[in-house]
Amino acid sequence: MKKLITILSILSLGSATVLAQAPVWNEIKGELKTALEIKGDPIRGKVAFEQCQGCHRADASGRVSGAYPRLSGQHAQVLMKQIADIRSGRRNNPKMEPFIGDHVLTPFDIADVSIYLEGLPMLGTNGKGTGSALDKGKQLYDKDCAVCHGAKGEGDAVKFYPMVAAQHYKYLLREVNFIRDGDRRNSNPDMVTVIKPYSSTDLDAVADYMSQFAPPKK
Amino acid sequence: MIHRDTTFKPMSTRRPLAMAAIGLALGWALALPSAAQDAKTIATAVCGACHGEDGNSAIPMFPKIAGLQESYIVKQLRDFQSGRRKSDIMAPVVAALKPEDFLSLATYYSGQKLKPGETGDKKAASFGKMIYFDGNEENGVPACIGCHQPQGAGHLIYPRVGGQHVQYVTQQLKNFANNDRSNDVSRFMRVTAKRMSEEEIQSVAEYLVELDAK
After folding, report:
1. Nearest Cα residue in chain A from B184
2. Residue B156: Cβ-neighbour burial (10 angstroms; 0-12, 13-18, 19+)
3. Which band of pLDDT confidence, cut at 50, 70 and 90, is reported for residue A23?
4. Which among A179, B53, B54, B77 is least surrounded, fewest beta carbons within 10 Å?
5. Could you give phi then psi for residue A156, rounded to 5 degrees?
């Protein structure tokens, strides 16, 4: 019996180790899976979004200051993943977290608000960088970023790669720094590896270059 | 594919559109002359002394209730009744009302025109305007317009705040910040008010008092 207990504890320790491994960044499970399986309703989403307007603006164009990103036109799948990641603590966002906790949004609300935002026209001018190092930015972007985020920053909904076109420069700059430094923990680890050697000047050049992309035509 | 449960939900549901629709439908059904007459009588006898017969309270610590959303007034009365919103003044008053009076009173006061006041501090009001329209990106205070609308008229479940007394607004924001008032939807006002500085609270109130929302 004692032996059996020992074996069992070793086995359970083993599975605990497996569980403790870093989760796959784009694994579809939990409420992300639930939200993805719901047919979002943009009319309900518009109502749910009212609580978000105080920061992201009524047209969801965000802030040129970069404090709050543009959400209009973003892929619904990307929005669902980011909301789910912030709720689960995988992405730190202390300012937003209390406003999107599970006492505020159900998975239905997440699906609704995401499909609503995806369908919004991308109004308003986004904040742009100084444009002083666009050649360098283009060179880095084409080499390392375009393969996932698209040649014109359009992203990839199915793979959860965000659209970066028409996003505010200062937001992009802050986030690429977070990603390089490991502070945005829900990122694709491949991206972290790729931009690890980037200097701050490199990151600035790429953020500036991305901020110049016009909203993709739908 | 997960299907939505579209069976009927009670009014406590967090679906504001549905709530508003139910509120409107009930409001219409009950806004018959006799009910309105009763409401006016109760308003004069019970509510008027503090809130004003037309809902424009003359006493800064008591809120103006003219033009508030009907569903908002009903919710507050029910919350006073259940103790979810605490007030030593309102609790006995509401206890003396019949629950069926809630909606007719709400319909009556909702139909009154709120008269804005005047700020005594223009400088604070102009700072308050910035907070109202932009919030504070540093401490994460959302802009008030997001829910309460540019003219302070409110929308759906978000109450009218334009034209309200300075003293009442500052007191409520402080109550939210201290959790002394906790009947806000989704804890939204508690989180927001906690992030606001005393100066921001005072300034927003000074701005709101003059807002004349249609």
Report:
1. A104
2. middle
3. confident
4. B53
5. -145, 110
| Helix (H), strand (E), coil (C) string for B85-128 | CCCCCHHHHHHCCCHHHHHHHHHHHHCCCCCCCCCCCHHHHHHH
CB-based contact A50 B155, cutoff 8 Å: yes
Residue pLDDT, tens place only, B103-129: 999 999 999 999 999 999 999 999 999
A105-154 pLDDT, tens digit per residue, is: 999 999 999 999 999 999 999 999 999 999 999 999 999 999 999 999 99
* Terminal-residue alpha carbon distance, chain B: 44
Instruction: Name A38's bridge partners.
Output: B2
Q: Please tell me the pTM assigned to this model.
A: 0.86
Complex ipTM, two decimals?
Answer: 0.86
Kindly list the distances between the CA atom of residue B120 and the CA atoms of B60, B117, B123, B163, B166, in Å, as whole numbers in the listed order: 13, 10, 9, 13, 10
Of A38, A51, A68, the CB nearest to B188: A51
Residue of A nearest to B20 (CA): A47
pLDDT 10s digits, A202-211 = 999 999 999 9
Q: H-type helices in A50-199, by residue range?
A: 53-56, 76-88, 107-118, 134-140, 146-149, 169-180, 189-195
Q: Whose structure tokens read 């829900």? A: A186
Residues of B in contact with A39 (CB under 8 A): 1, 4
Q: In this complex, how many residue pairs, one in chain A and one in chain B, have their CB atoms less than 8 Å apart?
A: 63
CB A122 within 8 A of CB A56: no
